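ok posting inputs for the 3,4-dihydroxyphenylalanine job
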Amino acid sequence: MDLKDLKNRAEKEISLAQNLEALNEISKKYLGKKGEITLVLRSLKDLPITERKKQGQLANQIKKQLEQAINNKDFKTKEDVKDRIDITAPGTRPLQGHLHPITLVKKEVEDIFAKLGFETIEGPEVEDEWHNFDALNIPKEHPARDMWDTFWLKEKGLLLRTHTSPVQVRYMEKNNPPLRIIVPGRCFRYEATDASHEINFYHIEGLMIDKEISASNFKAIMEKFFQEFFKKQIKLRIRPSYFPFTEPSFELDLECLVCGGKGCSVCSKRGRIEMAGAGMVHPNVLKAVNLNPNNWQGFAFGMGLDRLTMMKYKIDDIRLLYSSDLRFLRQF
Ligand code: DAH
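and the output
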């Protein structure tokens, strides 16, 4: 018996086998009880002793090789490989998104104000001239309009809102006092960008109207808010300012928490940062929404949400917040 020939035949058949059934047949043909190799091994006893040893070793070696070839046989075709799912392969983690730092801060601000009784309201980003300006005591041709570098839309009388204050008007048109709302939202201004200015940014407007609301209510609410938000006592400074829709008007400054008051790019080296404009709602604004200023009064404020975020996370350039740079965003 030519063992080499047997081996070659068997190997060829194994490699050509198309399915498990065919493979079993081949296994039986060569390695089964009456298989060719088995017969060879059985007939060894008839050989002279030196032959027996040589042939025996060779036959056993071939048997092992064929067994191995059968075990290793893989039926997959190229198509199979593409479609097959290897359930034993380690999984790839799905890429999970997460909230933007501004969204995180917005949520936190909403929660704190909710505890103080303020409802969260939203308004449109494309605004009309009446709500963004006129109703807020900023008539056409009034020089105060220069305070807001505005993106006007082609359609007459429409613009990208320059602040969230128009939502005060929208809300008071539909709701009667007493009222307490905050309005987080995106605003737009046509201006040069730098470390603390962007053409789009976020404000949080606040409005509280009742019979006897004064500037001390404003101060108390703000102190409470900043203490909760920064989890420590924060030094506020309230100084006189001017806004057409408030009288008197103030500006609220915080010690810059990015540099700790030493002066940095965020506070323009001043050590303090303007956090909010505010004031007692101007009688003309109340009149514009048909409220009688003799019966109702209150305060309003507009706070920079980006600045709040920058103070919270010690971010020294507002442009990072809008850069979509994952190296930055992944830190939150
Ligand atoms: N809207 C103002 C701004 O764009 C901020 C502001 C100032 C809002 C005073 C107010 C306010 O509600 O009372 O800078």
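notes: The chain has twelve helices and nine strands. The mean pLDDT is 92.
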